[in-house]
């Protein structure tokens, strides 16, 4: 069964690896290319499909429209347009951004999830790890995130795990809609 496109926002502090994760999930790059970093200007839309998603005993193919959003606050005036008809939000942070991540993620969650009236199941926090020692618990997120899935991601060593986690996240959105 085919569904319409799901609009998923990927947003978080600058330099947290959002574009690398979006490229990896859409199979636009190889794992070896994930270290190249260039700030996204405004937003970049990546489209791809996920097949064979099992939702309530039925198989689905879902077209994903992933909006890879800049973490730079000079683009904040674009946020209302980004939030329009959003069905899922991926908040991304990393060890590069850990010092500001908790406060920033709270702000982004409030604007893109709470004010858009999305459920906690329509949001996920990805902690982009650069080595195996880092732990998502070190972020010290507030109780706002107690019902939000939080996933440590390492593209170099755990890319396949990320794809499984992403498919599970999309399935939870489909079950919510």
Descriptive report:
With 177 residues, the protein is α/β, with parallel strands linked by helices. The chain has a single domain, classed as P-loop containing nucleotide triphosphate hydrolases (Rossmann fold, 3-Layer(aba) Sandwich). The chain is built from four helices and six strands, in the order E-H-E-E-H-E-H-E-E-H. The protein has a six-stranded mixed β-sheet, sandwiched between helices. Helix 3 links the parallel strand 4 (88-94) and strand 5 (123-128).
CATH class: Alpha Beta
Radius of gyration: 15 Å
Lateral arrangement of strands in the main beta sheet = 2-3-1-4-5-6
Number of helices: 4
Low-pLDDT windows of residues: none
Which architecture does the CATH hierarchy give at level 2? Answer: 3-Layer(aba) Sandwich
Mean pLDDT, nearest integer? 85
* Largest sheet report: 6 strands, mixed
Overall body shape: globular
Q: What is the total domain count?
A: 1
Classify the secondary structure makeup into a structural class: alpha/beta
Helix percentage: 25-40%
Please, what is the CATH homologous superfamily?
P-loop containing nucleotide triphosphate hydrolases
Compute the number of strand runs: 6
Terminal CA distance reads 15 Å
- CATH fold title: Rossmann fold
Percent strand:
25-35%
Provide the succession of SSEs: EHEEHEHEEH
Summarize the structure.
The protein is 29% helix and 28% strand. It is built from 4 helices and 6 strands, in the order E-H-E-E-H-E-H-E-E-H. A 6-stranded mixed sheet has the order 2-3-1-4-5-6, with helices on both faces.
């Amino acid at each position: 069964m085919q569904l319409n496109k799901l609009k998923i926002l990927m947003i978080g502090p600058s330099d947290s690896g959002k574009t690398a994760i979006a490229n990896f999930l859409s199979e636009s790059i190889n794992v070896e290319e994930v270290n190249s970093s260039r700030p996204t200007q405004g937003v970049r839309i990546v489209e791809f499909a996920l097949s064979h998603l099992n939702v309530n005993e039925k198989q689905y193919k879902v077209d994903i429209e992933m909006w890879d959003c800049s973490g730079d606050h000079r683009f904040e005036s674009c946020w209302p347009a980004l939030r329009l008809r959003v069905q899922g939000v991926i908040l991304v942070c990393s060890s590069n951004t850990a010092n500001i991540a908790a406060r920033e993620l709270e702000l982004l969650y409030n604007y893109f999830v709470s004010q858009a009236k999305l459920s906690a199941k329509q949001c996920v926090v990805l902690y982009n790890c650069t080595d195996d020692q880092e732990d998502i618990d070190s972020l010290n997120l507030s109780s706002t995130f107690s019902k939000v899935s939080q996933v440590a991601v390492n593209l170099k060593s755990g890319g396949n795990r990320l794809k499984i986690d992403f498919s599970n996240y999309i399935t939870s959105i489909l079950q919510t809609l």
